[in-house]
Amino acid sequence: MSTCKVALYGCGTVGMGVARLLLAPGALHERLGERITLGYVVDQRLDEIRRELNPGQSVVLTDDLDRPLKDPEVRVVVELLGGTTVARTVVERALVAGKEVVTANKALLAEHGDELFRLARRHGRSIGFEGSVCGGIPVIAALRDGLVSDRIESIYGIVNGTCNYVLTRMLEREMLYGRAIAEAQERGYAEADPRLDVEGLDSAHKLAVLARLAFGANVRLADIPCEGISQVELSDLRYAQALGYTLKLLAIGIRRGEQFELRVHPALLRSNHPVAAVSGVFNAVCIHASNAGEIVMTGQGAGRMPTSSAVVADIARVALGSYPTEFATLSQFGDVPDAKIVPFDDVETRYYLRLDCADRAGVLGSVAGILGEEGISIASVRQHEGAGAGKQTVPLVFMTHRAREGAVRRALQRINRLDVVRGERTRMLRVEDV
Question: Which of 407, 399, 395 is nearest to 351 (CA)?
C-alpha cells in the first residue's frame, strides 16, 4: 500500500493531538506501519506550533491554505479549524482538488453537510466525520457500519459533556446552576461564554449529524426545537430524584412512521436506565435498532485525545481504502430526502410539572380542572414542605400520563394566570421512557 500523506488544517487542542498521534510511534504505526505520514500543518501560529510540536524537517508548517492542495502527494485533508466560513472553503477546495476530507466540525456538517456530501460524491471523494459527535465514542461508525442491516427506530444521546457535568454537580453537591457553571469554567469543561453548550445548540448540531445517518434524511438545523439547561433549578433535580428520575440534557431522534421527532431539551430518565447513570463530562448514546435491539455506548465525548483518536481512525480508514468505497456506496451520503418533522406541538410524552402555590383550599382542584380541560391526565401529585416566608407557599409536583406538547403549553399558560400560583412560572420538564 502506498503512503497516505496528510495535510492538517488547524492545530489547536484537537489538532495538536492528531499531529502527535501521526508523528509519534504507537498503536497506529504498529498496525499500519509507515503508511500514514503528516506532510503539512496549516495554521497562523507557526512559531508556537513549531516549539510545541517539534515536527522535524519532513513536515511543512504554513499559513497558506492552498499550498497543500497543490501537492499531488497529499491524499487526505483534515479540517480542524472550526466555524463554518474558512472551514467550508477549505473542505470545498480540498474536494475539488481531489483530496479525501476528514473533519470533526459538527456545526459545518449540521449547516452545510448535505451540499458538502453532494460535492464529495460528484468529485468521487469522501468526508469522514467520526470526531464530530461524542469524541471517542464510535457512534458514527456504529450507525454507518455496525448497524447497516438495521432500521434505526430511535436514538437518545447525552452529547454535551459541559451540560452533563453541570447537572451532575448541581445534584451531587447541592449547587445552584450559576456555581456549577463557574466550576465547569474553572476546570476547563466550559467556555468563557458557555451559551453554545448550555442552551442546547451544540447538541442540536450533533443531532442533525446523527439523524442523517440513523434515518437517511437531511435535517435542517432550524427544524430541531432546542431548549437548554440554564433555567433548571436545583429543587427540581431533588424532586425528580425522589420520584426515581434523573435529569439529563438529551438529543432525541424518534422515527414515527414516515415522520421524525427531533428535539433537544432537558428530560427526566428513570434512574435505573444506563444513560441516567452517566455522569460528569461523559457522553452516552442509546440506539434502538430493529434487529440488534437497545444499544448503549458511553465514553469521553470531548477532549484532545478522545476526539483525536476518532479523527485518526477516519484517516486510517481512508489509508486502508475502505472508507472511500463506503462513502460512495451508502445511501446516507447520496441524495436523501428532507426529513419530515413531527410538529413540536404534536409530540407526545409524559410531563413533570412543579407549581409554587398559595397554601389554601381549592388550589389542587383549580389546577387539575385546567389540565383535564386540555385533555391531560394526572398520574400522581405530591405536595412538598412549604417554602418562603412563613411557609405560605407550597410546591405541588404533578406527573402526567402521555400528553401532547401543545396541550401542555396551553394548560401552563392558563395555570400561570391563576392568582394562587406564585413565582415567575410553572416549571415543566419532559419525561422520556427510553
Answer: 399
CATH number at residue 382: 3.30.70.260
Assess if residue 141 is contained within a domain.
no
> pLDDT (tens digit, 9 = 90+) per residue, 22-57?
998 777 777 877 689 999 999 999 999 999 998 888
3-class state of residue 216 by DSSP: coil
What span, in angstroms and rounded, lies between the C-alpha atoms of 271 and 251? 18
Catalytic residue among 5, 99, 106, 206: 206
Q: Tell me, yes or no, whether 51 and 162 share the same domain.
A: no
Cβ–Cβ under 8 Å, residues 42 and 8: yes
CB atoms near residue 93 (< 10 Å): 14
Give yes or no: residues 286 and 353 share one domain. Answer: no
**Euclidean distance between the first and final Cα of the chain, in Å?**
46
What is the reported pTM? 0.94
CATH number, domain of 320, equals 3.40.50.720
CB-count burial class (<10 Å; 0-12, 13-18, 19+) for 145: middle
Domain count across the chain:
3
Q: Are 42 and 65 in contact (CB under 8 A)?
A: yes
Reported as a single tens digit per residue, the pLDDT across 52-86 is 998 888 899 999 999 999 999 999 999 999 999 99
Strand locations in 271-347 (E): 282-289, 293-300
Q: Interior CA angle at 61 toward 56 and 7, to 5°?
A: 100
Is 252 in the same domain as 355?
Answer: no
Is residue 5 part of the annotated active site? The answer reads: no
Q: Is residue 126 part of a domain?
A: yes
Task: Provide the pLDDT for residue 48.
Answer: 94
Taking the CA atoms of 9, 11, 12 and 13 in sequence, report the sign of the dihedral they define.
Answer: positive
In a shared domain, residues 172 and 283: yes
pLDDT digits (tens, 9 = 90+) for 292-329: 999 999 999 888 999 999 999 999 999 999 999 999 99
